[in-house]
Design a protein that fits this description.
The chain is of the alpha+beta class. The chain starts with 6 loop residues before the first strand and ends with a strand. The radius of gyration is 22 Å and the shape is globular. The longest helix has 27 residues, at 131-157. The strands form five sheets. Strands 12, 13, 14, 15, 16, 17, 18, 19, 20 and 21 form a ten-stranded mixed β-sheet that branches. Helix 2 packs antiparallel against helix 4 (131-157) and helix 3 (105-123) crosses helix 4 (131-157). The protein has five helices and 21 strands. Among the domains are: 7-74, no CATH class; 184-303, Beta Barrel (OB fold (Dihydrolipoamide Acetyltransferase, E2P)).
Length: 304
């Protein structure tokens, strides 16, 4: 279990080197004699490459599967312990020495409340009493919880194996465990995200995370909202031969997030309550997983 490394110790130079330096063709000799700068276990270098339209940066990783020492800053459990220690109200708490519980309920409830308020405001354009106060209260509670969620997503993105967290962090919702595969979705699993939220009973719905690449940001004049459209995910044909195209979108107000902050090509992830919507045609159908953004910290920019 390990966090990927951007720097390592070179026994050839007797000093720290960056992954970018070692990636240069002229420095091939520096690929040997590399160690973790903290705990001195042997590490190897990975060159920059592209996978599933996403650029995978150059980095260092453990050699031979040897774990970083417990005190090492690149030890996954050590990083999670730091996140748990800094989290509020035990949203992420230790169960055993090697397992943690993430209380998704604490994000779900304020998000659901903000969603209800947004729906009510849409129906009644006149300001209702104390609306501003209730929005502030909900977003105040949510800020700290989403900060913890953001750190977990960022950590997942820099792990050697992104499924490492599956065995370390249990996701809890109203006393029940949520599988990571039912919580976190990458582009090759967009169809699964659509099918999952479609079959969930309303009482069992919960936030999910969707990761992807920004295709476009557009203004919707009818609703006054903006939409971040992610690149289509992995397509497939259903049992009737109709092509299914998964197309997630993230809807938000300019007061929640500046549209200028989101650029085409950015690698992002969002944690949100989502709704399914299908647009059917004769030869293909679009499976839209629509995420609703009520707080800027629901969205994490993983890379530009």
């Amino acid at each position: 279990m390990a966090v990927t490394m951007q720097e390592a110790y070179s026994t050839i130079l007797n000093e720290k080197v960056s992954a970018q330096e070692v990636d240069k063709p002229a420095n091939k000799n520096l690929k040997q004699g590399l160690e973790c700068e903290d705990c001195r276990i042997p590490v190897a270098h990975r060159t920059r490459h592209t996978r599933n339209e996403v650029e995978i940066p150059t980095l260092f990783y453990r050699k031979g599967g040897e774990n970083h020492k417990e005190f090492c800053s690149y030890n996954t459990l050590g990083q999670i312990n730091v996140i748990a220690r800094d989290s509020d109200n035990d949203i992420l708490k230790s169960i055993t020495d090697k397992t943690f519980s993430f209380r998704l309920t604490m994000i779900h409830e304020p998000l659901e409340e903000l969603g209800k308020q947004a729906t009510k405001q849409g129906k009644d354009q006149n300001k209702i009493p104390n609306q501003r106060d209730r929005n502030y209260h909900s977003k105040g509670k949510l800020n700290s919880y989403l900060s913890t969620m953001k750190k977990i997503i960022e950590l997942r993105n820099i792990l050697e194996k992104q499924n490492e967290l599956n065995s370390i962090i249990e996701i809890e919702m109203h006393g029940k465990k949520i599988k990571w595969n039912d919580f976190y979705y990458e582009p090759h699993r967009y169809i699964q995200s659509f099918n999952y939220i479609k079959r969930l009973e309303w009482k069992n719905r919960h936030p999910i995370c969707i990761e992807g690449i920004v295709d476009s940001v557009r203004y919707i004049e009818m609703s006054g909202k903006y939409a971040i459209n992610l690149r289509w995910g992995e397509k497939r044909n259903n049992n009737k031969g109709i092509e299914q195209i998964p197309s997630p979108s993230i809807f938000f107000d300019a007061d929640t997030l500046s549209p200028e902050a989101i650029k085409t090509g950015q690698h992002i992830a969002v944690c949100a309550l989502c709704t399914p919507r299908m647009n059917r045609g004769k030869i293909r159908e679009f499976l839209n997983t629509n995420a609703h953004l009520y707080h800027k910290n629901q969205l994490v920019i993983l890379s530009d």
